[in-house]
Amino acid sequence: MTTFHPISRLAPSLLAAALLLASTASAQQTLLHPPQQRISDQAIHADLGAYEATQGRIQALNDGGRPIRDYHLAKAQCWLDVSFHEYSRNDRSDFPQQALGESEKLIVGMEQGVQPLPTDTPLVNNAKYLRDDLWQRLRVLHQAPGFSCAQQQVACGEVELVHAGNEFNQQQWRHSKPYIQIAEELVNDAEAAARQCDVGAAAPVAAATLVANVLFEFDRDGYRDIRTYSLESVDRALASIAAESLPLQGIALVGHADRMQGRGFDANQALSERRARTVRELLVGRGIDPALIRYEYRGDTQQVQQCDGVRPRAALLECLLPNRRVEVRFEVAR
Best label site of 116, 225, 260, 276, fewest CB within 10 Å? Predict the structure, then answer.
């Protein structure tokens, strides 16, 4: 999320109800109608009024001086956005209510001046924990010197990973994949914002790492077996290095395989090595000095995407795609 997104789909006739709800919302949790009652215009209009009122409280905090880029304001907005998104898609689970509740908890804390405000991200509605690699990168960003410039992207990246996990539980990987991609873009944007952040002249020059993932088809390792869209992450990283004039100090290629041949199987170790060598040739073809490139091969020992219970086999293979990767770690000075 890079701009403030007030909910603007509500009819003007709802504004009076929204203002009335806003006056009492801080005293108690805003409750949506149970799914079985969302069949009348009256019930739906009341719920839309609740969303509008919650949006109004976020707007009031912003008007009062809390910037849009603030971690907690951004997170309240993103929780509200995903709640409304799923409500409007007729999600009949508890996710819209629980996501709205997370937004409201943060809003109340900001309204009451609570310090410190929480930074945890609950897996609401028992959302599946997906993409441990992205969660780890987000945790690192919380401690980064440039976090103040990346707060908004970090907050929304965390919420989108929960959103993806909820979609995975309901309709498996095909429905969660778009939100994973949104989260990954937010993580990349957050890392770029943190790198470019002016943290003061006294701050020492530090090393940084740009991460791209090149994804392969099942049991394949050639250039033609790469998911074409995953090459965009490599090109974005190279473009950022050029645009930010970052001295490239080295590149680590970390090859991986999925678990389909059984964890620890020698074939997966060899497969991860061949994939890394393919990506090396790809980078050399893009003008990278081969002397800067080194390898690591992890086989199937580091699965970032768990797909337990996914059926049929075609869906399982697609779900496991993030594990069939070569992590490209561009090590730069800044």
Answer: 116
In the prediction, which pLDDT does 174 show? 84
- For the segment 150-172, what is each residue's pLDDT rounded down to a tens digit? 999 999 999 999 999 999 999 88
Residue 171 lies inside a defined structural domain of this protein = yes
Give the whole-angstrom CA distance, residue 24 versus residue 26: 6
Q: What is the pTM of this model?
A: 0.86
Shared domain for 28 and 175, answered yes or no, is: yes
Residue written as tokens 């203002």? 19
Are 38 and 44 spatial neighbours (Cβ–Cβ below 8 Å)? yes
Strands 207-215, 293-297: pairing kind:
unpaired
Closest CA to 4 of 156, 163, 192: 156
Let me know: does 334 contact 199? Beta carbons within 8 Å: no
198-223 average pLDDT score: 82
Q: Which residues contact 260 (CB under 8 A, 6 or more apart)?
A: 218, 219, 317, 320
Q: What is the pLDDT of residues 292-309, one digit of tens each?
A: 999 999 999 999 998 988
In a domain, 86, yes or no: yes
At residue 271, the pLDDT reads: 95
229 & 155 share domain: no
Q: What is the CATH number of the domain that holds 259?
A: 3.30.1330.60
**pLDDT tens for residues 64-110?**
999 999 999 999 999 999 999 999 999 999 999 999 999 999 999 99
In a domain, 239, yes or no: yes
**The domain containing residue 21 runs over which residues?**
12-193
pLDDT class of 37 with cuts at 50, 70, 90: very high
Indicate whether 26 belongs to any domain: yes
Same domain, residue pair 26 and 147:
yes
Among candidate residues 193, 217, 232, the one where a domain is terminated: 193
Size of the chain, expressed as the number of residues it contains: 334
Work out the number of other CB atoms within 10 angstroms of the CB of residue 93: 15
Domain finish residue from 193, 220, 235: 193
